[in-house]
Amino acid sequence: MIFEKKLATCLTLGFIFATVAGTLSHEWGHYIVAKSLGYQVAINYASTYRTRGTYPTPAHNFWFTLGGPVQT
After folding, report:
1. In this structure, how many other beta carbons lie within 10 angstroms of the beta carbon of residue 65?
2. Dihedral, CA atoms, 24, 72, 33, 23, nearest 10 degrees?
3. What span, in angstroms and rounded, lies between the C-alpha atoms of 43 and 56?
4. Cβ-based neighbours of 49, under 8 Å, separated by 6 or more
5. For helices 5-36 and 58-71, angle between their N-to-C axes, nearest 10 degrees
6. What is the C-alpha separation between 22 and 1, in angstroms, rounded?
7. Are the C-beta atoms of residues 48 and 5 closer than 8 Å to each other?
8. In this structure, are residues 18 and 59 in contact, taking their beta carbons and an 8 Å threshold?
9. pLDDT of residue 36
10. What is the pLDDT of residue 53?
11. Rg for the chain, CA atoms, rounded
């Protein structure tokens, strides 16, 4: 088997890009649901979190949690 440097480089860069894009879009799913429920939230690469205000009800927490996987 011959190692193709160009192919390996393209696959590696594509994987890195897809991982970052997938993680951010997943977090946007949580963010959109939380904002639509009226919460003040912030987003970063690894999480979406409440910045201030009331704590979510169990029902809101369910929808907030479900927002990421549904978007992904």
Report:
1. 13
2. -20
3. 17
4. 41, 42
5. 150
6. 32
7. no
8. no
9. 93
10. 76
11. 17
- In whole angstroms, give the CA distance from residue 56 to residue 4: 51
Cβ neighbors of 53 (< 8 A, separation 6 or more) are 39, 40
- b vs e for 34-64, b when ≥16 Cβ sit within 10 Å of the residue's Cβ? beebebebebeeeebeeeeeeebeeebeebb
Pairing of the two strands 40-43 and 48-52 = antiparallel
* pLDDT tens for the chain, residues 1 to 72: 688 999 999 999 999 999 999 988 999 999 999 999 988 888 877 778 777 777 888 999 899 889 999 988
Question: Among all chains, which residue has been given the structure tokens 């690469």?
Answer: 45
